[in-house]
Queue: 2 jobs
Job 1
Amino acid sequence: MSGDDQMLAPDSGALLSVRSLTKRFGGLQVFSDVSFDVERGSVVGLIGPNGAGKSTLIDCISGFLRPDVGAAVFDGRRITGVAPHVLCRAGITRTFQHAHLLQNLSVFDNVVVGAHVRGTARLAGALWRSRAVMAEEREFADAAMAALDSVGCAHLSGSPAGALTAGQQRLVSVARALASQPRLLLLDEPAAGLNEHETGALSEALTRLGAAGFTLLVIEHDVKLITTISHRLVVLANGGVLADGDPVAVCEQQAVVEAYLGTSHVH
Amino acid sequence: MFTDFLQFTAGGLTSGAIYGLLALGWVLVMRVSGLLFFLQGEFVVVGVFVIVTLQDHGASIAVAAVGAIAACVVGALAVDGLVIRRLRSATPMSEVLVLLGLALLAGHALQQIAGPNARGVKPFLPTKPVSIFGAFVTPHQIAAVVVTAVATAAVWFGVTRTSLGRAMQACADNPEGAVLVGIRPVRLRTLGFVGAALIGGVAAVVLGPLAAMTPLGGLLWSLKGFIAAVLARWSFMGAVAAGIFLGLIESYGAGYISSVYKDVISLSMLVVVLLLQGAVSRDSIVQRLRTRRMSLR
Amino acid sequence: MAAGVIILLLPVVLGHGVLPSMILAGTWGVAAVGLGLLAGRAGLVSLGQGGIAAVGAYAAAYASARWAWPAEAALAFGTFAGVATAVVTSPICRLSGFYLATATLTLAVIVQRLLVAYSSLTGGANGFVGIRPLTLLGFDVSTELRFFYLVWGIALLVVALNVNLLRSRFGRALDTIHAHEPTAAAAGINVARHKAAAWVISGGYAALAGALYAYYNQYLSPDQFPLPRSIELIAAVVVGGAVAPLGPLVGLVALIVLPTHLNLGKHLTAMLAPALLVIFASFFPRGIVPHVRSFADRVLQRRAGADA
């Protein structure tokens, strides 16, 4: 399948189709021929040992890197090689391993940025605070509060972001991504560095999102968390897809356990 | 026609050698401490003025040269100890603004002390031009090229063969890791400044007889050195080659197009090269430059 | 806005001796506020605003002196020339921190060299004379007092516009870009376009400032700016406060008004901007305004505490 086609017929009804994705950095092959689907309304977990290229894969899908071979198709349209902000408009957004919140602004101010992508009022109107601009600001505010609510952080909206714990900041960054009303949300190690309590809160929030019908692709190291929230698990190791299927079954596969040798969080 | 070309080449090689020296200083400081060393040109200018002053008082060239180099080293230590070490905010951008500000202050202070006129060092080698392949070069020009070659070799040797040099490389690539291994980034930064000052002083000695310097001209020399460093992607060997390349381009441009545009050509090259280079670079130094927070506060 | 009223009343309070320096502060304040937007909020530290201001100044001067255009048209032309320059050079804002700073510094030097080179157009090193006195919309604005109110009116208007702009989607986008570009991109912000917009906007302000300066000074020379002005402007932003809207104005007042009244010589005056830049970047990176504000807050709190 040539990666140059603009429109690829959806061959599986999946929201996101990754096909034969290959990425090299100089002489180093990160992964090759990676293919998997993400069905509408499902939560797919992406796991694998350190250095397997999970973040690189997400970067390729979210427009930050261009794969060398292969393509990703979102809702029938090719998205690899498209700029991140365009993808956000199309309904794909992602989080990063650090929350990168503006520390001296309030949580609300941080999250409302995510809602901007849905705005259409003319920018010049901002200079004199035109009616259209002010109305839009109210809509942004509503979207932001709804997003904060869905991760359970609505009560923090007025606090300065710097006063939050790492776990709370992470949840806020998820809210910021949600504020753009995405159809596909990519999460890059949301539980990294969180303590047990915070991981629990995160797990709850993600489960709620999954139940509400959001489509999520989540990279995680915490295998316990990921098996709890995911409908399906994809294992990336040794430069390719090692396993793909039901979380419990995948984790029991010998090959997967071996790939994780020395880091067995399984069960 | 051809002799013109040779003459331009000779001139370009000479100025290119100096640019290469300056670029060496920039690369040294950048690799060791990640800072933009706007002071590089000031060392050259101050060095020249020290030589001139000492010569006016009857000192021999040897004494004057040593004096100039010593002055530069003292200046570098002062900047490092009194200013950089005290920086409280320490975002990389504010450090660089401080260096830029200091460079301008040095230039103005020098003008206050020594007046606005350009000064040149009295020639200390025989001035009769020698003919090489048909182009006329003065012994001073040859000295400039030779000294640059020697300096480059010395720097290359120091950085790749001595443990100190390897420590500097390690520090540049990974400051946190370097600390764990016992290397002290602060100490290395001081050494980097001193090294750059030495280079500046030496450049003053070879450049003084060739070109007159105005007190405020330091910044332009600094910029030329920076351009060469960027062209060389911050490698030591490349720095000298890039400097020579820059000198040649300038010389041909001035000779064949118009001398008025001499500076514009090399300065524009910087902008063009940066824009072209701006895209993807895996070089660790360039990468570090791009990922550090460059805010004012 | 209380600060604005205070400023406008200053000549009354302090007498007309303070006018020339305050006029300069107001004129360049327009450019400084633009740089505050660019460098303070968007994080694009530009050392080349003086270059764009020079373009604006010379363009306006040329229109006024050689083509005898009325002031309104000349000022507009100057601003337009600056904006055009900014648009043409906008790819520069894609560069990251250090490279942006040096590239813009280089731009300023290039502009200065070009001004000297094209002496037939610009009067070269000898300078440019012949700018008409300023009359706007029929008003004669050539007296110092009137000029003072004009430039400070413009400066405060620019600050007000900036405040609105920064509180909007655009301002928040700039803040996010400043914090972490990938996050901004993932949130749907077209980073390149926003940076270019900030660049062009601040370029426009710089050009307007330059054009106004041409009318005030009635004489332009390639050495007055671009480089010293660029340094002065970035120093003003650092000294006054990069983030607060009024910060750059405060910084500029400190930089321009102080030396005139301390009667420093020509060279010491030239040294003041770099010196303050060094001092503030080293020890007070947040600038004057935030410190004053927190000081005022503490005083008010103590007062409130005493009352309670």
Job 2
Amino acid sequence: MNEVLAIAAAVALAYFAGLSVIYLLFTTIAWRGITQHARERNYAPTAETLASPLTPPITIILPAYNEEVGIVESVYSLLGLHYPEFEVVVVSDGSTDGTVERLRTAFDLGRVRKVMRASIPTAPVVATYASRRHPELSVIEKENGGKADALNCGVNAARYPYVCAIDADAMLEEDALIRVAQPMLMDSRVAAIGGIVRIVNGCAVQHGRVTAVGLPRSRLATMQVVEYFRAFLVGRVGWSRLGSLLIISGAFGLFRRSLVEAVGGWATDTVGEDVELVIRLHRYMRERDEPYRVDFVPDPVCWTEAPEDLGQLGRQRRRWQRGLAETLWRHRRMWLNPRYGFLGVIAVPYFLVFELLGPLLQLAGYPVVAFAFATGAVSAGFLIAFLSMAVLFGVVLSVSALALEEFSFRRHRRGREAARLLVFAVLENFGYRQLNDWWRLRGFVDVARRKSEWGEMKRRGLGYSPGAAGSPSFE
Amino acid sequence: MVAALTWLAVGLAMIGAFCVAVLALRRLALARGERKRVAAEGRLKPQALALLDGDPAAVGDLPPEDMPVVAGLLARYAHHLSGSERREIAIFFETHGGVDHELSHLRSRRAWRRATSAFLLGDMASPRAVQPLIHALDDADAAVRAAAARSLGRLAAPEAVEPLVYAHAAEKLPRTVAGQALLAVGAPALPPLRALLEAAEPGAREFAVELVGLLGDAGDSPAVVRRLADSSAEVRAKAARALGRLGARDGTAALTATLRDRIPFVRAAAAHALAAVGDREAAVPLLRLAAHDHFDPARAAGHAAARLDPAAVLRAAGSDAAGGHIEEAADLVVLRLP
């Protein structure tokens, strides 16, 4: 028995050591990436891009399902974005509430027999509308087929060579589009770009714009603010710098339309359609040996609401885990496959071992360690030292993510807020992380039960759909 | 093992505490620095404005520690100024060593330093920076090249036109950046751009014709019309778009002929251009294209026809042979009727 426990302890230590090395490596890479990006902002040709008639136009696709509460505000905020030329295509995915009616009244819509490409098959389109007052706005009403299907419908309707997919509840900052488009303007090989997603809870919002950045009152949401810093400022910047970014948040991503069409659009048979599309794009380009880049830009901000109750947060995390499991299984051919370079040999296995199986291994560690202690296989000293180290390591990672934010974008200007974030960077290691692991473990059960629905979303004042932001785990 | 873990935990605790201390100190330092900067800018603004009004003595006897603040103000003003004010700014930076300082950094080993200097030189308004910036268009780093292009535009240097066009054609500069620099140069860029319409490199011809369309006038249309017969489809498409921007009616016949080009995106560009030129005669061939062509040219043709002759589009939409694109165009006509 003691031998088994010793092996289990060794596995736990090896796992923890591996994870620590990777996290430290990523934190270092992210520091480099973000400081470089902060410097580049000083000489980026943003103003020139904004003024130029040569800047490529973009189609913004807004899939909406029963978003009557906030859809008008969302569309107004998109129409006010700073970008030389763009159109907004709202796709109502079989909404059963007043989503289309609200749009029709607010934007003076009229029915138009819009011709759409048949590049990607979708559920049937019921009606298409154009606005009398905003020629750049069109609305498509289609039968319900899910978010991915609505996005594909938007791609079929898009006029422009780049498509920006955003959630109906997400709010983009005025210059978010111009900033997220910079890599695409500087390098024609760019296939897709993600922008940072931040949590809007606690911020002052007016007419679909964040007018003052603040922290949520809810402790659960504040934990998620810290979590998002870690995920976006460390994880995504790190993977992007290594040329292996696998996740572009479903809330805000820019894609080359021709490529999305070439790979068949967003997959409609998974709840992780955002990560699945990015992996498929990687595969497509690598299997054809075509040069390309998938980029992440850490300052074009998309604001989205975080769930403030455990039930919704749990459902969100289970869904993310399910999406990740489905996607990794679908692309199992990439596992440790040198044909896909760093992506196949390092990135995908990392996601498999540390993101997908991580919760299982971490939660299994607690009873094993407790049992080992109870049977005397490990001493009290070992137990305390190991647990202290694990917690402190989590604290250091979270604090370094806060430091990254502080040294680069510094959106939380008040000292009191910075102090609160520091406190939560410590607190999240006691309970919140373990709870997250538990939800993600339950995600496995959902996979086994072949659960396929998204789960009911509770709508709030601004038409938010909590949980649509894409996984902020350390990816 | 226990001792090693304990030491690791202690180390991590110290790193965490160190991070927190750094964050707190940085917050205090930033707040203090910001307060000082705002105060200094408020104090020195009158002197900077006096300099722009032609009184260099206003900043002549300032203490050295105030100079960076004045330089920052002037560089910011330079974004929005032209003429004599920019000359005053150039003299300030030349006499106080700002230009030499940044020129020396253009040779720095660090790419970000070179890019920063290339960017700042554009706001220093000094013509002395033009040649070094043209050299910087060949820099190994894309950000340096982009910053140099932007500054050459700010300096409105006609001698930079050809290097900018060729840098874009060689894929060293993105279209938006090179194009915006050339547009910033303005009318003086036209003579070299016209000459580049006959360049051997298709990429150079394509970019030149696009820029002539944006900067030129109706007198440029014969040269642009010739490019509609170019061997490169990209050049033909850009020439069509350029004719639309020039709005030259003498281009209508050539554009109408281009509706029969074998490449769909050239036909789509010709349709867009015909709408911009505004000759109603083109509505008939456009409607033909809208009824029978591939998606993109047909769509462009339907919309163009609707702009030129809405009544004809409404009539065509009533016929059984009208395709979806004509119906869509007709619906938009009805929708936007006053």
